[in-house]
Amino acid sequence: MNLSPLPTDLIESLVKSALTEDLGQAGDITSNFTVPERARAEAVIAARDLGVLAGLDFAIASFKLIDPNIQCDRLIEDGARLEPYMMALRISGSGRHVLSAERVALNFLGHLSGIASETSKLVTAVAGTNCKICDTRKTTPGLRAAEKYAVRAGGGVNHRFGLYDAILIKDNHIAVAGSVTAALKSAQENAGHMVQIEIEVDRLDQLEEALDAGARAVLLDNMSTDTLKQAVALNAGRAKLEASGRVSLETVRAIADSGVDYISVGRITHSAPCLDLGLDIEIK
Question: Is residue 24 part of a domain?
């Protein structure tokens, strides 16, 4: 998998914030008061469940920002499929420092791997269709770039990153603007030629109005699979179609089979369960 890494500055900023939250003003008083200062530790982080790995750079940064002398050796890469007991990272260094970084490293790794794993399940479910699974802006505040990276690690694609990089005209915009046509025409007249414009509709008559107004990307919100099929036929290839709402592992294949181009799923970021990974000290 060709997975572009996130910028180092972004990763370190997020990890520093998490470490500050965990260590507070006094540091790790448990490790400092129980582990000899010169004691060293060797450990591995391994999966305890099936899934897809994401967030290895965050885990490594957690150890390195506490102690640059900690050695971290990658055993696999983000995007790899995990099985129980499969090792992802080997760590060696100061026992105190390894233990102090453990929870922050596992929090990032488990959360992001959980997102990658849930995304992968949906991607697998629509395999063989031309449909792609994408995320939304329903992300944890401050963690959007990391969570969207995890979606890519799971084989999904990213929707817009924020309000600044693409226009998505939703039902409330249409209500204030006055109509589908009015909202779309205004966006077309004011946006630069490089800015993507998508409009949300929840009825076939709105879709027809949007297409007549020159829509090139349309979000079909909470439509039944039968209605989605009608929408695909009505569209006749004129615009890219994205389905959203009521998407689950049980429904996603039928939605993809309707012929839409994308399925956006908020729960892969806002509700993905943490993947179980653990750090184990190797006793020799």
Answer: yes
Strands (E), the chain: 40-47, 51-52, 71-74, 81-82, 87-94, 132-134, 167-169, 197-201, 217-221, 240-244, 262-264, 277-281
Neighbours of 155 (CB within 10 A): 19
Q: Is 200 a catalytic residue?
A: yes
Which pLDDT band, with edges at 50, 70 and 90, does 246 fall under?
A: confident
Of 63, 126, 150, 77, nearest in space to 257 by CA: 126
221 is catalytic: yes
Q: Per residue in 250-260, pLDDT tens? A: 999 999 999 99
Same domain, 82 and 218: no
Structural tokens at position 205: 């008559």
Quick one: 265 and 156 in the same domain?
yes
Q: Judge whether residue 54 has pLDDT over 80.
A: yes
In 3-state terms, what secondary structure has residue 261?
Answer: coil
Catalytic residue among 103, 132, 160, 229: 103
**pTM check: above 0.85:** yes
Mean pLDDT of all residues belonging to the chain:
97
Q: Is residue 3 part of a domain?
A: no
Q: Which domain holds residue 32?
A: 8-117+273-281
* Residue 39 and residue 131 share a domain: no
Domains in the chain, number: 2
Of 170, 203, 238, 267, which one is the catalytic site residue? 170
Average pLDDT over every residue of 185-208: 97
Which residue among 102, 118, 221, 261 is the active-site one?
221
